[in-house]
Amino acid sequence: MPKYVYRFSEGDKDQKDLLGGKGANLAEMTRLGLPVPPGFTITTDACRAYLRDGVVPDELAVQVTTALRQVEEELGRRLGAAEDPLLVSVRSGAKFSMPGMMETVLNIGLNDVSVQGLAAASDDERFAWDSYRRLIQMFGKTVLDIDGDLFSDALDAKKTQRAVNLDYELDVDALKELIEEYKAIVAEHAGIDFPQDPRAQLDMATEAVFRSWNTERAHIYRRREKIPHDLGTAVNVCTMVFGNMGETSGTGVCFTRDPSTGRGGVYGDYLVNAQGEDVVAGIRNTLSLADLERLDRASYDELRAAMRRLETHYRDLCDIEFTIERGKLWLLQTRVGKRTAAAAFRVATQLVDEKLITMDEALTRVTGDQLNQLMFPQFGDDSGRDLITRAMPASPGAAVGHIAFDNAEAVARAEAGESVILVRRETNPDDLPGMVAAVGVLTARGGKTSHAAVVARGMGKTCVCGAEALEVDAVSRTVRVAGRETPLTSDDVIAIDGTTGEVFLGEVAVVDSPVMTYLRRGLEAALDAAGDVDSRELVTSVDRIMRQADKVRRLRVRANADTPDDARHAIHRGAEGVGLCRTEHMFLGERKQYVQNLILAADDGEREAALAALLPLQKGDFVQMLQTMDGKPMTVRLIDPPLHEFLPDLTELSVKVAVAREQGTLDPADEALLAVVRRNHEANPMLGLRGVRLLLTLPGLIELQVRAIAEAAVERLKAGGDPRPEVMIPLIGSVRELQLARERAEAVLAQVSAESGYKLDFPIGCMIELPRAAVTAAHVAEEADFFSFGTNDLTQTTWGFSRDDVESSFVGRYIQAGIFGTSPFESIDVDGVGGMVELGVDGGRSTKPGMKMGVCGEHGGDPESIAFFHRVGLDYVSCSPYRVPVARLEAGRAAVLAPAEAE
After folding, report:
1. Are strands 318-325 and 250-257 parallel, antiparallel or unpaired?
2. No. of H helices and E strands in the chain?
3. Alpha-carbon distance 619 to 775, whole Å?
4. Which of 471, 500, 291 has the alpha carbon at shortest distance from 392?
5. Which of 102, 121, 363, 432 has the fewest CB atoms found within 10 Å of its own CB?
6. Residue 877 in contact with residue 855, Cβ under 8 Å?
7. 463 flagged as catalytic
């Protein structure tokens, strides 16, 4: 019989695949002897079986009964009993944290009879009936899929009727009336009575958690976070402990360090006389842990000891949910806490300094995506700003955009190209599409552990919470600001600062972040520009981790650069060479006419004249590039695009000629040009006359480009420089193509050597961007000094589609359908395109074991792809100059993580 249920005392933190993150960590805390309410976990295997078959496995009910009875025996209480009833919570818990994306039901076991037993046992009638009210509301929304607004509206109406403002001001009679109204809502909208059988409640809630794995918001979150859709969720059934049993009870969430800035200290939110969902939902603004110290010093001291123990045990920032029930502390969850990019770098180096982790481990605690976030601009000088309010800085950054009040508005305006800030009273999991579309999030309620704050931090979105000066009305689509007469609407632009918590009306100028200053100008300049201690520590932390990455990485990092400016940007960011210089970019603009002259040449004389005109222009470009990259390798790709890109559009030229002929004003040159354009027109130019095919069929083109490179190198050598060009032939499919191209290139190099007296022995290699080249790489390597994998074209030709066409048509649908996890043009398709890369590497090195190999597609700057390129043994990646720092960091991470992945 498969084992679907584990008591908390049976597992540990390394069983996240089976028990989910929450269940594994509850088991670990139990193992450590920390105060965890008894309970058990239903495994992800059970969820996957349910999702596969549509029914709960037969064995599950039996195993749940066994585990439940063990909990009952341990506590001396029974689920839903008439006297002193045992109540449980049912919570989701996937392997990877998905805050708020799936379901939770509290107070399972309450019914018309057990509520009276709870009232007697707790000696608090109001608490018991309020707990029953919460169960029906949560069960109706979560399990029975009833619109939650129906319950919220009934609650608001009851408060209005009783002339009170807050939930806890409703007395017992009002709560009893409200429960009857809730039951009527359930009967009307679900077609059944609210279940009175406690075991039925437990089983239905478990199925609801299983189903919640496939909700739209869960799918959106997993797609964004690149979490596989086939993992399933575990279900944690935990004895209820109550934070809403009066003034000596409460609930909270704490962090062992500030998850927003990384600053050390005591951070968290606490609510007196409340249940856990009140904190996360952000419905009530919270107290700080310092307030808990004042209210209940004993519980505070015990919590602080548990925080230190957990951080030491996990060797990382921990996020802990806790409840205090009448002065008794209970820990309900812990996990390695989500944090902002700035906090990630600072915490990593703090833990190194505290001797909890090594510098190599610090590399694994940060990511290239986080470094990229730190490179975003921030608000500049504060002159001329119109400050609306200051609130809780929940996720740093600077965001400017129009106000959007809901998902539909945020998504529609973002798709139209506008920047929007989602403004809500508080967010809940249903707001995820709007949060994804927005550049920032602003809420009127909630603290650093509210749903908005936690999700925004995980996504790297700027977020400000708890702006009490704002009254957000999503129905009338207005924001009223305390002290201002005119409300804000969707027409208004606001700016939010997630580092200070400031909210401004209107546009606010942005400047380079301290980290970008560091990457461009170095550590000293960044420290001088950093205005506060936090910024200085952040810059220092980034510097330490980047230096460690450079120290341990095996992959070299080059840049794709076509101009001296591109090359300079790349060098400033740490590039070690140019991996792709696209020469066709040197023939655009005014120079396009020279290429047209070459194509239109009627005889050898005209062709020679066209080539002679192009030579000094291209040579001049190469002189500047080689000067900028002095002493560093510069891989020059000979011309790659099809001829039609240098010629007028066929349709436009045909119309022009037809109209001119009709009017009797036809220019013979246009007619001749049209004939050439028609002759060179291709139905599928991506697979037509381009790359090496064009180089071999257009006389003089290889000679022109290689001579320009060679003469530029000679000029730099004469000036005392150290030019290191590498000649790269594109779109090779046959070794014979490369052999012919190489012979012509070598002949030019020999000729320029003889003319100049300098020995020019530059490497000549090729791009591997066709499946045939990868499959026959052992033969191609006989004529190549190096390989560079052009993964953009290799992706197109392996999949058999055109990037320009499919990205705008069906890639999004393929991602939704699970055919793609992410676009194969963003991250390497490891099984398909990656398989071609491996074939090319293995084949090439079977012929030349020490052969240099790199990649120059856009994947060269993608974190996940870089890890793959490291594993298959490439020597370098080449990417956009702006992604060079990310590539350096990820190459270091790959070097540290690869041994673990290979085991």
Report:
1. antiparallel
2. 37, 30
3. 36
4. 500
5. 121
6. yes
7. no
C-alpha dist (Å) from residue 683 to 118, 449, 540, 650? 77, 57, 55, 12
**Higher-confidence position of 103 and 843:** 843
SS3 144: coil
Determine the average pLDDT of the residues in 714-737. 97
pLDDT at 276: 67
Q: Which of 451, 569, 859, 870 is catalytic?
A: 451
Give the residue among 60, 456, 9 at the shortest CA–CA distance from 259: 456
Residue with tokens 């000029």: 715
Which helix H or strand E contains 398, and what residues bound it? Answer: strand 398-404
| Strand bridging mode 233-239 / 88-94 | antiparallel
Q: Convert the pLDDT of each residue in 736-785 to its tens digit.
A: 999 999 999 999 999 999 999 999 999 999 999 999 999 999 999 999 99
Among 543, 722, 564, smallest CA distance to 630 is for: 722
Q: Which residues contact 61 (CB under 8 A, 6 or more apart)?
A: 203
- Contacts of residue 149, defined as CB under 8 A and 6 or more positions apart, other chains included, come to none
Residue 451 known to be catalytic = yes
**Interatomic CA distance for residues 400 and 166, integer angstroms:** 34
Taking a C-beta distance cutoff of 8 angstroms, is the pair 862, 822 a contact?
no
Give pLDDT tens digits for 117-141: 999 999 999 999 999 999 999 999 9
Q: Please name the residues in contact with 754: beta carbons below 8 A apart, sequence gap of 6 or more.
A: none
User: Which residues have a Cβ under 8 Å from the Cβ of 442 and sit 6 or more positions away?
Assistant: 391, 421, 422, 423, 424, 463, 464, 465, 467, 470, 494, 496, 503
Cα angle: 454, vertex 459, 461; to 5 degrees: 90
Structure tokens, 121: 């046992």
The three-state DSSP-derived secondary structure of 649-667 is: CHHHHHHHHHHHHHHCCCC
Residue 364 phi/psi, 5-degree rounding, is -80, -10
CA-only gyration radius of the chain, Å: 33
The two beta strands, 287-288 and 264-272, are antiparallel
Q: What does the CA dihedral 341, 344, 349, 350 come to, rounded to 10 degrees?
A: 120
Specify whether the CB–CB gap between 370 and 344 falls below 8 A.
yes
The pair of structure tokens assigned to 769 is 């961007």
Structure-token pair, residue 877: 């990646």
Catalytic residue (choose from 47, 318, 581, 856)? 856
- Mean pLDDT score, 633-650: 85
Angle CA 847–853–859, to nearest 5: 140
Longest dimension (CA), the chain: 106
For the chain, the 3-state helix, strand and coil shares in percent, each to the nearest 5, are 50, 15, 30
Positive or negative, the Cα torsion across 503, 507, 513, 514?
negative
507: amino acid identity, one letter: E
CA distances from 602 to 43, 249, 643, 654 (A): 76, 92, 16, 21
Instruction: Please say whether the beta carbons of 507 and 483 come within 8 A.
Output: no
| Three-state DSSP state, 285 | coil
**Cα(403)–Cα(418) distance, integer angstroms:** 11
Q: Quote the tokens at residue 21.
A: 């993150």
Contact 273, 248 (CB under 8 A): no
| pLDDT for position 818 | 75
Residue type for position 517: T
Residue 467 DSSP class: -
